[in-house]
């Protein structure tokens, strides 16, 4: 028996008062220290605790007690329960349960999530901190009854969720966000390579035209000089 009886001290009180078992036997069965059992027998420990009969609760049998009383070194064996309790299946539907001591911190955690991770959906915030959609809407629109004194606080620091769960929800929201942004953006600007490529032929044309003008000007200058030399020779 790894965890001992249902109520160990109450069971030990009953065994001390109603059997002749050794302190070590009672301590081993109830998962207590032998000195603690001795204190129960002396009235120094568990004062005012009413004894619990382990036989009536199905945790021990009479035959096992009698067998242990005859052999001081014999260890009591708990009775095997004949009733099988159904396995409790954990349900994931509904908001996450939050202890009463931490429920007052949920509005601060919601405000922190809305400011630092606006990409999160309301359903994701509900899973993280165990709140309702109406509470999220009130905090977002500043209509919450205590909105004036709310301060954003990390839900992981408050113990409302774990860092693994928070990172998982943020990654899921980030994975869904690019598709939504692409659908809303519509037509986009052309890349720089395309826009600059359109201007290149104009520059080439201007360079070619400029070079041509320079060549025409040079030919006219040489022609004029050549004409002047011929006039001078004729005069001579």
Roughly what is the average pLDDT, rounded to an integer?
Answer: 77
- Major sheet summary line: none
Helical percentage: 55-70%
Order of helices and strands: HHHHHHHHHHH
Alpha-carbon distance between the two ends: 139 Å
Morphology call: elongated
Number of beta-strand segments = 0
Compute the CA-based radius of gyration.
45 Å
- Specify the number of helices: 11
Low-confidence stretches: none
Question: From the helix content, strand content and strand pairing, which structural class follows?
Answer: mainly alpha
**How big a fraction of the residues is strand?**
under 5%
How would you describe this structure to a colleague?
There is one protein chain. With 236 residues, the protein is mostly helical. The chain is built from 11 helices and no strands. The chain has helices at residues 8-18, 23-30, 34-42, 62-70, 106-116, 122-129, 133-140, 155-158, 163-185, 192-197, 200-235. The mean pLDDT is 77.
